[in-house]
Every structure is written in structure tokens, then in C-alpha cells.
Design brief:
2 strands, 13 helices, two-stranded antiparallel sheet, single chain, mainly alpha, 319 residues
């Protein structure tokens, strides 16, 4: 039980740390002029890679996950995922074609942003052009941010803060992706384990009788024999469980109540009149059963011996 709680605490702590980190895209919305200026700066930085490829890590590190833009009073989020993917692809090969595609994409987005200051939203022709660019093979995996993307971005931001001087920016997205899927796998395994244990414990709690027949259908000496067999193996919880049904079978055989397969331990206790000489003993047996069986507390030999003594006080010959 403690190990499961500890595992759950670890998972909750991991996710809480990641989700509580401030997102890299947390910023005041940019006006159109500011957005155009940011795109101009990004274009200049990307073009500078032709002469200084070592700036790629710095550019990647300073690139937010998205730009928030105020478009005529309406806030729009512009994902930088296309740039990130293409920049990573260029870092792995340093080929001119990859860099040209990044510049082409940024130039088109910059031109559309500049045009938005003086004209209505992009025409069908412009939208078609942008769609054509994004439909190319190099952009086929680009899409809006999912919750996994956001989680991965948070982890990447933390890694850049903690390991920025040790690990290159090109390696951080790979590490963050591995951590994200590791957390998901751990969460799925923990959920599966919890469901398995819940089902097992639910079966135990729902099973009041081993078979759907009256308790007295099995004579009380047989219940007692099973209780002693469990005690011989040191299985004190089962021993007390069987001993309890020994008492119930004995009282039922004596006519204390009519047999009923659906009756619960508390209902058996309520069937005895307050003046019954057996009520105090049955209450003690019921309380102990609820504690060690339904409450799943560990029992010991002392509690089993006390249960046997109470059975004898009911009239069961246990020796």
C-alpha cells in the first residue's frame, strides 16, 4: 500500500513540476508592428547562419514555442513548431536547401503580417500559397500544439535552464521527448496496476460468502476446520474470516434466523435481539472481521485465539 502511494506521489510530483514551469510562450500579445519586427529579427538571425552556423543553438534557445499576436483586438497564437523542426533538420545536415526553406517560410509569414496592417485578412490566393508551403514533405508533421507538445515544451524549457551549458540545444528536444513518453508510460503502468489491485480488492470486498448458499449449508465444524488450517499456515486474516462464519453457521443451525445468502455481517448482528446472550459476542466477532478482512488490517495469533474463545462462549466445541 505504501509503495503504491509513493509511486503515485512521484508521478504527481513529476507532472506538477513540469506543468508548473512557466511556458516559454508566456508573453504579452504582440501588436502587428511588433510581430513584423520579431519576424524581421528572426529572418536576420536565420540568414546569419550561413556565415556563423554556431549561432543555431542560441537561436533555438531564444525561440518561443509560439508568438501571441493581437490581430485587431483578437489574440492569435502562431506556433513556431515549423521553424523548430526545420532548424533541427538543418543542424543535423547543414545543407543549404533546408536553410532556404526556413527563410522562404519566414519571408512569406513576414510579408503576410506586414500586409495585414493595411488590408483585410489574407485572400484565398494567399491562403492557398501558405497551404502549399505547409503541405510540402518537410512540413508534413507540423500541426497545432497538442497537450503532449506543450508538456514536451515545458520539459525542454526546464532542461535548457538546468542543462543549457552542458547539453546542446539540438539534443534537448530529443531528451525532452524521451522524458515525456517515459512519464506517459509510467502513468499508464501505474494506472493499470491501480486498476488491477482495485479489481482484486473489489472482488474480495464483494465476496461475503465463498458460494451462493446459506452459511448453514456448510456445517460449522467444517468452517472451523478451514479456520484451523489457515491458522496452521500463519494466514491469520483468513483464519479469523473462517472462524467468524463458523459462529454464523452455528447460530443459524440453532435457528437464530432464517437462512439468507445475501445477508451481510451487520445484518446478522441486527437479527439478534438486544436481550440475546449471544449479541455481545457476535458484535465482537463482527467488529474483528470488519477490521482484519474488509479493513485489510493484519491479524495475529492472539486475535485468532481470542476469536476461538468467543466461539466457545457461543457454544461451539472448538477443542
Amino acid at each position: 500500500m505504501r509503495s503504491r502511494s509513493a509511486l503515485g506521489s512521484v508521478l504527481v510530483a513529476c507532472v506538477a513540476v513540469v506543468l508548473s514551469a512557466p511556458p516559454s510562450s508566456a508573453q504579452e500579445p504582440l501588436s502587428i508592428d511588433q510581430y513584423v519586427s520579431v519576424l524581421d529579427g528572426s529572418l536576420a538571425s536565420i540568414r546569419s547562419l550561413r556565415s556563423d552556423p554556431r549561432r543555431a543553438d542560441e537561436i533555438f534557445r531564444n525561440l518561443p514555442s509560439a508568438w501571441q499576436v493581437d490581430l485587431a483586438g483578437r489574440q492569435v497564437e502562431v506556433s513556431t513548431e515549423p521553424l523548430r523542426q526545420q532548424l533541427l533538420a538543418w543542424q543535423s545536415k547543414h545543407d543549404e536547401a533546408s536553410l532556404d526553406r526556413i527563410i522562404e517560410y519566414l519571408e512569406f509569414v513576414r510579408d503576410q503580417a506586414a500586409a495585414a496592417k493595411q488590408s483585410p485578412p489574407a485572400s484565398a490566393a494567399h491562403r492557398s500559397q501558405l497551404k502549399e508551403i505547409l503541405s510540402r514533405r518537410e512540413f508534413r508533421d507540423v500541426h497545432g500544439q497538442t497537450w503532449i507538445d506543450r508538456l514536451q515544451q515545458r520539459i525542454a524549457d526546464l532542461l535548457r535552464t538546468w542543462l543549457g551549458r552542458v547539453v546542446s540545444s539540438s539534443a534537448i528536444p530529443v531528451i525532452s521527448e524521451v522524458l515525456v513518453y517515459a512519464l506517459i508510460v509510467m502513468a499508464v503502468l501505474a494506472l493499470a496496476y491501480w486498476m488491477y489491485r482495485s479489481l482484486r480488492e473489489g472482488e474480495r470486498l464483494e465476496t461475503i460468502m465463498p458460494t451462493p448458499v446459506p452459511v448453514s449449508a456448510k456445517a460449522w465444524p467444517l468452517w472451523l476446520a478451514e479456520a484451523r488450517a489457515a491458522a496452521a499456515k500463519g494466514d491469520w486474516n483468513n483464519a479469523i474470516h473462517f472462524a467468524y462464519w463458523t459462529g454464523i453457521s452455528f447460530l443459524e443451525a440453532q435457528g437464530a434466523w432464517q437462512p439468507d445468502v445475501a445477508r451481510t455481517p451487520r445484518e446478522y448482528l441486527r437479527l439478534l435481539a438486544p436481550s440475546s446472550a449471544h449479541r455481545v459476542v457476535l458484535r465482537s466477532l463482527t467488529t474483528r472481521l470488519e477490521t482484519v478482512w474488509y479493513g485489510m488490517q493484519f491479524a495475529d495469533e492472539k486475535e485468532f485465539r481470542q476469536t476461538i474463545a468467543e466461539l466457545e462462549s457461543l457454544g461451539c466445541i472448538c477443542n
